[in-house]
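Quick review question:
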């Protein structure tokens, strides 16, 4: 291991890391918004929209992100709409993540037993109050593990952004290997920066899950 090479590579990886994190988290925020809206539409059985969302979820959960990015980056411009590679990455990740987040939120809402709803109604709560004060808080607690797992999954999926010429961590690693042939050092730095990006999220997710469950259930 040549530490001189590592010090030379560090600024390049740091720049790629910031780009990867920015695109990754913007895509994740978009996916959460899409997931919440989709889950609500399915839960309340909104006519037509719930069926369209069901089709969207199946399509995006069963196609690779790479294919979706190719469609956005190379296909959309054929329709006269030009988008940057960074925007393409955010939208692609958001759409893929939205399909997973939708199922996480939907299954959590569906997991609340009817007895909870009946008890709330017996106490005189309206349907709206029951949803926002009883069902939604419990569903959020149940969804935390799946949401955290999806966040980690989406951050790892950023590794395919190099296919649309984004200077992310993977692109930087491949570029440096091609230029200098220091494969060991390049891959080592790639692993280190992915660990820096993912481990804190995993730890924070575990803490959030424990606190949410303790606050709701006292466990």
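Suggested answer, residue by residue:
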């Amino acid at each position: 291991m040549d530490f001189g090479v590592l010090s030379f590579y560090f600024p390049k990886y740091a720049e790629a890391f910031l780009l990867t994190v920015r695109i990754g988290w913007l895509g994740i925020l978009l996916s959460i918004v899409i997931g919440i809206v989709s889950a609500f539409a399915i839960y309340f059985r909104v006519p037509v929209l719930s069926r369209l969302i069901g089709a969207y979820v199946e399509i995006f959960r069963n196609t690779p992100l790479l294919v979706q990015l190719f469609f956005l980056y190379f296909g959309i411009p054929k329709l006269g709409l030009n988008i940057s590679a960074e925007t393409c990455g955010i939208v692609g990740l958001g759409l893929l993540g939205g399909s997973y987040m939708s199922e996480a939120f939907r299954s959590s809402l569906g997991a609340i037993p009817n007895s909870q709803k009946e008890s709330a109604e017996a106490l005189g709560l309206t349907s709206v109050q029951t949803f926002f004060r009883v069902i939604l808080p419990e569903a959020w607690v149940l969804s935390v593990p799946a949401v955290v797992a999806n966040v980690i999954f989406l951050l790892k999926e950023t590794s395919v952004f190099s296919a649309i010429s984004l200077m992310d961590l993977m692109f930087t690693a491949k570029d440096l290997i091609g230029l200098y042939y220091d494969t060991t050092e390049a891959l080592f730095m790639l692993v280190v920066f992915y660990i820096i990006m993912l481990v804190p999220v995993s730890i924070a997710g575990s803490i959030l899950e424990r606190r949410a469950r303790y606050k709701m259930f006292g466990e």
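Why it works: The radius of gyration is 21 Å. The chain has one domain: 3-217.
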